[in-house]
Amino acid sequence: MTKKVIPYGRQDITQEDLQAVIETLQSDYLTQGPKIKEFEEAFAAYVGSTFAVAVNNATAGLHIAVLAMGLKKGDRVITTPITFAASANCVRFVGGEVWFSDIDRDTYLLSLGETRKLIESKPKGFFKGIIPVDFAGLPINLEAFRELANEHGLWLLEDSCHAPGGHFVDSKGDVQRCGNGNYADAAVFSFHPVKHIACGEGGMVTTNSETVYKKLLLLRSHGITKENMTENQGGWFYEMQTLGFNYRLTDFQAALGITQLARNEKGVSRRNIIAIAYKKAFEGKLKYQSLPENHLNAHHLFVIEVENRKGLYDYLHQNKIYAQIHYIPVHQLPYYATIGYQDANLKNAEDYYLKCISLPMFPTLTDEEQDFVIEKVLDFFLP
User: Fold this and answer.
1) Dihedral pair phi/psi, residue 34, rounded to 5°
2) What is the pLDDT of residues 49-96, one digit of tens each?
3) Cα(179)–Cα(185) distance, integer angstroms
4) What angle do CA 357, 268, 329 make, to 5 degrees?
5) HSE-CB of 77 using CA atoms within 13 angstroms
6) If you ran DSSP here, which 8-state letter would residue 157 be given?
7) Other Cβ atoms within 10 Å of 14 Cβ, number
8) Which of 224, 225, 300, 364 is positioned for an S-S bond with 137, CB 3.0–4.6 A?
């Protein structure tokens, strides 16, 4: 076991994946072809949304999503400090202000109570939107956040990059899949190799709003459309209606995404089996992310909290277990600290960061590998 590196996350590329990519590479379209639409339709059907727009990465998806929400310079948006920086950066791309609200100390998700307090501490209209994050794969209760957003006239953009296949059950007893658009105005997913669905790079924005969907399509591809072409105009006709971007996904990435997506349910099931084994081993010994009733955690990560985090990190790496830290609180990153966030009162997030460490979590992690990880974690604390 000590000769083989065990990363915290790993893509699984099968022969079926390879064949799908090869066939697309041998086709007439490498980009802007039929595989994009096929992937979008399959993904929308999977999460239960009306529309899906494929993009070249989730950061691009977040960028055009906040633009589609109508975000403009000076607007203020709330998000969590325990996330990858892109969840906040997308607001800064547009010239908006990021306001961080603290996390729940047990779920590690954006705290509804703290967010409510922050909103109600300011005049009506002070904030424009909220970007809740399904951190580590655990779905945030968007029904509750939707009620809060509606009270104050805010939009909701779900950052679901960690959680394709996750769900919660709402107050009506209905299963609400991450990204289905029933409570959030839009959602964003990531197809980075360590995520559930690997396209190399890539992302998807889902929504139930046709207005938002049309804005996303324009912004993804230079702000250009052919939709107003008449029969008197040639096939070369196009209009640039707004200032957009080149955020397109390629067809061969989409082909890989289609075959990866088809295996995601199996992958989420395996991730939960791994999580159950970790919890059984660490119960009563180490703290880990809690699971609220009627939630399915898609488990991009399995995070534990320890007092000697640096010591455990080094010990695991010495044993070729490449655990990782998720994440340095965004408000503590130099960029955000230097523009006035260094004094933010986010005690729960900062306390979590001092103790968190992510253990290997991916569907092809073997029982033997997981047993080795558990053994080394417990050996470090209970030699």
Assistant:
1) -70, -25
2) 999 999 999 999 999 999 999 999 999 999 999 999 999 999 999 999
3) 9
4) 30
5) 33
6) E
7) 11
8) 300
Measured from the Cβ of residue 189, the count of other Cβ atoms closer than 10 Å reads: 29
Residue listed under structure tokens 């209209």: 125
Angle between helix axes 251-262 and 15-25 (nearest 10 degrees) is 150
Burial class of residue 349 in the structure, from the number of CB atoms within 10 Å of its CB (0-12 exposed, 13-18 middle, 19+ buried): buried
**Beta carbons within 8 Å of 206's beta carbon, 6+ residues apart:** 43, 44, 47, 49, 51, 52, 53, 179, 180, 181, 186, 187, 188, 189
C-alpha distances in Å from residue 21, one per residue of 25, 346, 364: 6, 45, 21
In which residue are the tokens 């072409």 written?
229
Q: Are 256 and 17 in contact (CB under 8 A)?
A: yes
Q: How far from 342 is each of 128, 327, 333, 334, 336, CA to CA, in Å?
A: 23, 16, 9, 9, 7
Using CB atoms within 10 A of its CB, is residue 338 exposed (0-12), middle (13-18) or buried (19+)? exposed
Model confidence, pTM: 0.97
